[in-house]
Each structure stands twice: as C-alpha cells, then as structure tokens.
Amino acid sequence: MYSKIEPPTKKISKESVKVWRMTEAITNLIILAVLGILLFVDDYFTWKEWIGWILNGLIVLSCFNAIWSIFIEPILLQKYWRYDVNEEFIQTKRGAWSEKHELIPMTKVQSVKLNQGPFLRKYNLYSLSVGTMGDSHDIPAIPEKEAYELRDKIAHFAKIKEVD
Amino acid sequence: MEEQAKRLHPFKIPFEFWKLLKGNVFFIIMLYVLNFGSEKMYMKVLQIGFLVYLIWKVISVILKWYTYKYQIKESAIHITSGLISKSYRTVPLHKVQNVQQRTTLFHKIFRLTSLTFETGMTGDQGTVLFEMISRKEAERLEGEYASKQELPVIEVDSPEERIAEDIQPTSEKTIHFTPSKQDVLKASFTSLSFLALIPILATLYNTLDDFIDLENAEGFLARLLDTWWIITIVIAGLICVAVAFGIVSTFVKYGKYEISSDHERIYIKKGVLDESAFSIQKEKVQAVEITQSIIKRLLGLAEVKLISAGSTGDEDLETNTLYPFLSIERAYGMVEEILPAYKVERSMKSLSKQAFKIRMLRPSFFWILTTLAIYYFKPSLWYISLILFVLIYTLRIMDYKNSRYLLNDEFIQFKSGSLETSLFITKRSKVIQIEVERSRLQKFFGLATIETINRSKPVHHTKLQDVSVNYADEFYTWYMDRTKISKSNSNQ
C-alpha cells in the first residue's frame, strides 16, 4: 500500500482516550448494574435455575468486555487512527488488528457537521462527521480550533466542484 | 412555456374508493351485513361512527384529488396539494434518476397508466408518483422530461461522451432485443416455472377433498392405478399440463420484452397483462451487474441489471433488468450496444495461490460454533459437522475459482460468488467512495480486501476479498487519479 500516495498522517487528540474511557466506563457500569439488579431479582423471586446461569455468564462476559473497552481499546483506537484532508480527498485509516483505509472524494461530500457531547466538551474537543451520498463518516475527537478549520476547509473544497 | 397546472385523471377517485372498500371490507361486513338491524346500543354507535368515518374518507378522497395539482415549468415538477395545510413541492427534472411506467390490467381497461419519477433522494420524498393519468398525459410528461435533459450537465470523467450525444439527434430509437419463441421456451425451463404447478395442484386437491371424499375413493383409485398404461397416460398428461402452464406463465411475465435505446436513454418494456416500462438516461446508469445462477451458468445464460441511483420500485418486478435469460455472449454484447461508453473486458485476472491458501486457512466461526454445539448437546449427530465442513469448503473453492478482477482504463470489474456469480462493472466517476481493508491474516499473506461504493437505493457495496496488496495499491492510485483527468479536461 501507499507506494505512490502519501498515507494519512494526522492523528486525533490524545485526550480522546480519556473521553472514550469515561463513556465506556459509564455504559459498562449501566450494563453491570442492570445485570446485577436482574440477578438480585432472580434470587429474590427464585426464578428458574438456568436464568441464574445465563445472568452469571453475562456478568462475567461484560466484566471482560469492560476491561477490554475501558483499558485497552481506547489506546489502540487513538494510536492507529489517522486522517488527512486535501483539496480532492478525505483519507482515513484505522485499526490495529485489521487495517481499514477509506478514500472519499470531495466532490461526493454533501455535508459536514461538528458534534460535541458532554465529555468531549470537558476537553474542548469535537467530532466531525462528513455526510456523502452513501453514508456518513466520523473523525472522532479533534481539538476545537482544528475542528472548526477542518469543517470550513471541507465545506470549501466540497463546494468547488459541483457534480450530480 | 407556461402551462396550466393539472389534476390527475378523475378515475383516481373511483380507484381510491375501491382501495377504501377493499381495506375496510371486514368492518363493513361485520357492521352492516352480519349485525344489520341489531338492537344492541354499542352496535348502533359503532355503525354510525364507522359510517361517519367512511363519509369523511370519501370526502377526503375527492378533496385530495381536487387539490392535488401538478405542473412542469422551468425544468422542474411543481406539485401543490392539501386543502387546509397546503404543501408545495418542487423537484428539479435533472435530479430525476429514472422513470417508471406501470400499466396494470385495471389501468389498461380505461387507457390509463401510472408514472413514477425517481430521484436519488432518500425517504419517501425521493419518489414522484402520478398514480392515475391518461396514457397521452404520461407520454407528454416523459417527453417533457426528455427534452429538458439537454441542459449542460457537468460530468467528471468523460465529457467527450456528452459532446458526442449532443451532436446527434436524439429521436431515433433502435430496438436491441425482443424475445423469440425460442427465448421464451428457454426462459420457461430455466426459471423452472413448470414447478409452479405443484402448489396449485396441491391446493386443488385440498379443495376437492373438502367436497368429495377422496380418502374413501382410494380403493377405486388403487384399482385404477394397477393398470400401468393409465399411470403412464396420467403422468404424461400431468407433465404436458405443467410444461404448458410454465410456458404460459413465462410468456405472461417475459413475453413482450423490448429493450431499446436512443442516443440519450435506455428503455425496457415488458409484460403482457400488467405492463411495466423503465427508462434511464445513459449517463445516469451507475453500474452494470451481470448475474448468473447455477442453472443459468450451466445453460450459458445471464441476467443484466442496470443500477440506478433512484429506487427501481418493487424488487419482484425487476424493472431495471434487461431480459434475464440472455445468452452470456449476447449479454456482454448488449451492454456495449446500449451503453457505448462502457467497455466490457472478457478476460479478467484471477486470484493468486496465496489467496487460495488464506481461504483454506481462514477459520469458519460458523462451523466451529455448530461443531461445539453438536459436541455439547448431541454428539450422535457428528456427521452434520462433517457435511457442513465439506459444504463450506466447496463453496469457498467455488468462490475462489469464480473470483475475477480487472482495472480497465476508467472501468473496474469485479466478479465473485460461489453458487450465483455476479459481475459488477462501473466507471470511476460513478464510484462515490472506496475502501481497502487488511486483516492480520491478510497482512501475513500479502493480501487485501478492496471495496467500492456506488450510488443506488440502498447504497451498493461491492467487495472483493484477497487480492494482492500491490493490486490494492494500484486500485487506490487508480481512484486517486479520477480528479487528475477531470482537471486536464477542465483546462481544455
């Protein structure tokens, strides 16, 4: 790959790791809480035995999932996420285990949008989503100034060549 | 070019009444036939309430027809509708991706038709439907649409194609294909339509069984079946009926096929009782797909589909399909004939030995899970695991053998599939995005998965697994070059 083309180089913000950790921690906490309550109810009303088994199994699985998605996944995601925007294309590359490269021509871009949730706001970050005729593509966690610049840049480039 | 805003044909009103009646037939019978003159209080309330509802519906149907007006001006369709809250809709004609016309038997009786303009927009708003208009009006609207197409459209990759079209007159139509008797025969056997008689016979037997006691007639039947020549006659008769039935049903569906084109667009017309017509501007064809089921492959037949960015209506109607039983040679030829801008290369590259290895090594999670489940729950069924294993690997090998790819100038061709193969051809300017993916295993073998995304409804993803990484690189560069060419063009 990339014998004639420059691979994308821009990284997303390091703070994104913290943001992902927080969101993941909360979601996993909710999942565990729900499962815990179910287990309690199961015990209290003495439901069928197999339900208890399934609940226990699910709790173990979501514990593993929590460890993976809170401690390991965010680091890998941040480390391998690359993007680049030039006059003609948006390029993204991501994934540690299996690599995924995307190439989106500017002429096919229909919309650009900045999003900011509460955690992103804490670190003054934005996620940028680019809508094409097919679907939308997100670049997560970019610092505020860069995000605004990037949005305007994409909007400008996308406007130049208007095709069907 | 000012013209009066028009309404749909008045026949829309009885047609809507009929739909209303059909939709509420259960309630109507319940309330006004079975419980007619009932003394119960709640029944009376329901009867009156439903009557009010029906009257309201009838009035609204008439008002809807009355307020729905359309008009084509300044190369856009303008639609006004609604009585109290008015809505105005404007659809620019150059956004229309394809046009469909459907004439059911009902339409035919009254010399009407329904016309649909499809734009590429998502959601219901993407479709402009004229459900009941006279044939003449439909022709006028289509003509209007066609004449408005000579607007300058900016084309990224190949402006020369447009220029060529502009020079030549657009009126003359050439017919590329109408099925002969032989084609219909071939089609009826390929589609196995004669098998459709079996469920019909089964229902017939069941209904007969309700009236005559067939179970008890068995003794008589058994005696009858003892004589071999009666059996032969019966079977021969049944086969004849089945074949005749198959041919007739195929003829009704595919008999009056006509594929034609002029310089601007392609027309597909079909159907004997219910007619449907599809037309698309040549440059709005997003891609071409040639599919072959296993039976078609054995008989050397193929099906060609034109992919449009707009919706193509009911899947079963196959409106965007060129005749689905073309011989493979004819199919390739037809694509080049109706789309002169397309080049179809027959010889394509096959996958490497590395790809074969990876496909043999790649674990099948489906097989592993089933095997585990069988081992755990019912070890006596071990042979199912074995059969599944053989099946999965056979399909994998078939897919490997069928996979082909080619970059041909500004065209890309992908072919893959195990039982049913599909060859996908598209132009670089019509690809809206590409993706390259490399898993760990693929990195080890120096392979990659390439994918193109095209406009369609829903978006069309085409994937080819396990091409060499050099090729993926070439693919990436090829797509990058799309704008380089357009730049040099814009300088011209």
How does this structure look, described?
The complex is a heterodimer of chains A (164) and B (492). In chain A, helix 1 packs antiparallel against helix 2. Chain A has 2 domains: 63 residues; 79 residues, PH-domain like (Roll). Chain A is 51% helix and 26% strand. With 164 residues, chain A is an alpha+beta fold. The model of chain A has no long low-confidence stretch (mean pLDDT 87). Chain A starts with 9 loop residues before the first strand and ends with a helix. The radius of gyration of chain A is 21 Å and the shape is elongated. Chain B has 492 residues and is of the alpha+beta class. Chain B has 3 domains: 138 residues, PH-domain like (Roll), CATH 2.30.29; 73 residues; 148 residues, Roll (PH-domain like), CATH 2.30.29. In chain B, 46% of the residues lie in helices and 25% in strands. Chain B is built from 18 helices and 20 strands. In chain B, a hairpin with a 5-residue loop joins strand 2 and strand 3. The two termini of chain B are 35 Å apart. The C terminus of chain B is likely disordered. At the A-B interface, strand 4 of A face strand 18, helix 16, helix 17 and helix 18 of B.
Supply the helix-strand structural class of chain A: alpha+beta
Mean pLDDT of chain A comes to: 87
CATH topology of the largest domain in chain B: PH-domain like
How many strand elements of chain A? Answer: 7
Helix content of chain B: 40-55%
Give the CATH H-level superfamily of the largest domain in chain A.
Pleckstrin-homology domain (PH domain)/Phosphotyrosine-binding domain (PTB)
Distance between the termini of chain A: 31 Å
State the helix count of chain B.
18
Total domains of chain A, how many? 2
Indicate the CATH topology of the largest domain in chain A.
PH-domain like
Largest sheet of chain A: 4 strands, antiparallel
Strands of the widest sheet of chain B, in order across it, are: 6-5-4-10-9-8-7
- Which CATH class of the largest domain in chain B? Mainly Beta
Q: What general outline of chain A do the C-alpha atoms trace?
A: elongated
**Structural class per helix/strand content of chain B?**
alpha+beta
Report the largest inter-chain contact.
A-B, 26 and 34 residues
Seen as an oligomer or otherwise, the chain set is heterodimer
Mean pLDDT of chain B: 83
